[in-house]
Amino acid sequence: MTIETVTPLPDRRRWTALAVIALIQFILVLDITVVNNALPHIQSSLHFSRADLAWVVDGYVLTAGGLLLLGGRLADLLGRKRMFLIGVTLFAVASVLSGAATSSGMLVASRLLQGTGEALSSPAAFGLVALLFTGAKERAKAIGLMGGVAGLGGTLGPVLSGLFISVGTWRWIFYVNVPVAVFSVVAVSRLVAESRAARPEGRRQADVTGAVLGTIGLSGVVFGFISAGNHAWGNPQVWVPLLFGGLAAVAFVVRERTAAEPLVPAGFFHNTTRVTSNVANMLFASVFFTLFFLLTLYWQQVLHWSAIKTGVAYLPFGVVISLGIGLASALVPKVGVKWMMAAGGALFAFGMLLVTGITVHGSYVTQVLPGMLVMALGSGINFATFGIASVWGVSEQDASLASGIQSTAQQVGGAVGLAALATIALRHATTAVAHHTSLALAQTNGAILAFRVGVGIAVVATVLPLLAPIGAAGRQETPVQEIALEPAAA
After folding, report:
1. Strand, coil or helix: what is 474?
2. Where are the alpha helices (DSSP H) in 1-38?
3. Residue pLDDT, tens place only, 373-411
4. Burial category of 12 from C-beta neighbours within 10 Å (exposed 0-12, middle 13-18, buried 19 and up)
5. Are 397 and 479 in contact (CB under 8 A)?
6. Strand pairing category for 196-197 and 3-4
7. Is 251 exposed, middle or buried (0-12, 13-18, 19+ CB in 10 A)?
8. pLDDT at 486
9. Using the 8-state DSSP alphabet, how is residue 36 labeled?
10. For 363-378, how does the pLDDT look when each residue is reduced to its tens digit (9 = 90+)?
C-alpha cells in the first residue's frame, strides 16, 4: 500500500494554514457551549420545556459524535482538504438556519445539521495538520495547539454569547459563524494541498451502515436520559430509547468486526496510549460540558444574572485555560502524556470539588472563582495533551481517522454526560420542589449533586492514565511519522 502525502509547504505558509484551521476548530467547539448562556432566551423565544432544552446542546453533539468516525474515514479516502471544505460549508449553511429558527423543532434540526458539518470537517482538519508538520517536536506543538485552541473555544462560548445577547439577540451566536467559515474555506483552498490514503481498487468506500448504527445508538441513549428529566425510569419514553440505543450500539460493534472496510481498522485500538487518552477524554468531556450548562443556569435562574454578567464571569476561565494549553504543549515532549493527563485530571477534579460549595445567595469570588481557576488550568492541560496523544503512533493513511476518534470520544462523552448529569440535577430539583423546597434551593442542590458525581468521574479520568501501560513499551505498530510522547532521554 502506498500513501499519498502532502507536499511540504514553506514554513510561514504552514503556520498560517495552522492558524486558519485552528480558527475553525475554535468555532466548532465554541458552538457546543456558546448556546449555554443563551438557553433561557432561546427557551422563552421558541417555547422549549426545561428538559428538552438540553437538545439545543445535544442535538449538535449527537450528530458530530456519531458521524465523526465516518467523517475521519471519508477524509482519509476521498481527500482531507475536500472533506474539510464540504464540512465547513455545511456548517455555515446550518448556522444560518439555526439563527433563523422559528420553532424549537427547526432549531434542533439545524443543530443536527451543524453537527454533521463538524463531523466532516474536524477530523479532516486534524489530519491536514498532522501531515503538514512532520517533525516530532513541531508536530507535537501543532497538534497540541489545535487541541488547546479547540478547548479555548469551548470556554469562551458563554463569554461571546453574553456579548451578542447584550447588544442584539441570541440569533447572532449562530450568524457569527458564517464569515469565519467563508474566510476559512477561501484560505484553506489556497494554502493547503490535497492528500488522501491510496488504496487498492474496489476498496475505497467507508462503512456508512456502521456510522448510522453508531449514531442511532448514541441518539437512543441520550434521548432516554433526557426523557428521564420529565418521566420516571420505568416510563416507556425512558427505557425504550435506552434499550433501543443499547441494541444499536451492540449492532455497531458487531458490524465493525465483520465489515470489509470498517470505520476503525482492526488493530487500531491496540495502542494503549491512544486508547487510554480517548477514554480519559470521554470521561473529562462528560463533566466539562455539563459544568457550563448547569453553572450558566445557576447564575441566570438562581442568582438572576444577566447574559453579559454571566459571560464576563467566564473570562478568567478563558485566560487560565490558555496558560494550561501553553504549559502542556511545552511539557508533553519532556514529561510524557501519562503524567500530563494525570495532572490535568487532578486539577480539574479538585477545582470542581471547590465549586460544589455554591449556595442560593452565593458569592462568585469565594464560592466559584477559586475552583474555576483550578479547573481552567487542568482543562487547558487536558485538551492539549489529549490532542497530542490521539495521534501517537499513527501512520499517514489514518491521520484523520485518529483525530476523528479523539473528537468522537469528546463529543460522545459530552453528549451522554450532559444528558445524564443534567437529568440527575433536574430530577433532584423536581423531587425537592414536590416536598415544598423553594425552587432556587432545589435548583442549587440539584446542580451540586451533579457536580459531586462529576468529581467522581473526573477522579476516574485522573487515575486511569496512571494505571495504564502508556509509553514506548505499549506501542504496537511502527508509524510513518510519530510524536515523541515519552520524556526526553537524559
Report:
1. helix
2. 11-33
3. 999 999 989 988 887 787 776 666 666 667 667 777 887
4. exposed
5. no
6. antiparallel
7. middle
8. 36
9. T
10. 999 999 999 999 999 9
The domain covering 8-193+263-474 belongs, at the CATH homologous superfamily level, to MFS general substrate transporter like domains (1.20.1250.20)
Cell of 114: 451543524
Sequence spans of domains, the chain: 8-193+263-474, 207-262
Q: b or e along 351-366 (b: 16 or more beta carbons within 10 Å of the residue's beta carbon)?
A: bbbbbbebeeebeeee
CA gap 341, 339 in Å, rounded: 5
Rounded distance between C-alpha atoms, residue 94 and residue 160, angstroms: 19
Percent of residues, the chain, with pLDDT higher than 90? 25
The HSE-up count of residue 267 (CA atoms within 13 Å, CB side) is 8
**What value, to the nearest 5°, has the Cα angle with vertex 200 and ends 194 and 203?**
90
The cell for 451 is: 457536580
Task: Using the Cα atoms of residue 63, residue 421, residue 222 and residue 457 in order, give the sign of their dihedral.
Answer: positive
Cell of 116: 454533521
Grouping H, G, I as helix, E, B as strand and the rest as coil, residue 4 is: strand
Helices (H), 356-475: 369-389, 399-434, 439-467
Q: What are 283's three cell numbers?
A: 470521561
pLDDT of residue 353: 96
Task: Confirm if 477 and 393 have CB atoms less than 8 A apart.
Answer: yes
Distance CA 478, CA 436 (A): 63
**Secondary structure class of 456 (helix, strand, coil):** helix
pLDDT digits (tens, 9 = 90+) for 283-294: 999 999 888 889
Longest dimension (CA), the chain: 69
Name the most confidently modeled range: 4-13, 125-134, 220-229, 420-429: 420-429
